[in-house]
Amino acid sequence: MTPNEREIERTINAGDRISSVPASDALMQRLKQIPESVREGYAKIPKKVVWAVAASIAILIVLNVLSARDYAEENESTQESSSYFDHLKTL
Predict the structure, then answer these.
(1) What does R_g of the chain's alpha carbons equal in angstroms?
(2) What is the DSSP letter of 46?
(3) With contact defined as beta carbons under 8 Å apart, do 25 and 32 qualify?
(4) 3-class DSSP state for residue 44?
(5) Domain ranges for the chain
């Protein structure tokens, strides 16, 4: 066996020596408390704020769609006029 092959074999066999470590009781308790703390956080946010944020996002989406449509219409009209003057670009 070459030194490289021995190194590869040693690396592959290293996984056999690794064993899992059991989680401590304190860690398990903290993990079990996470869903309860998340629910408490949701309860603290007023419903008015949630609806205001949802309405703001909806308004932003509508404004973006309207501005994109107006921009497309504006480009179509300028494209027609610019194609008329395309022969001047060569000068």
Answers:
(1) 32
(2) -
(3) no
(4) helix
(5) 46-84
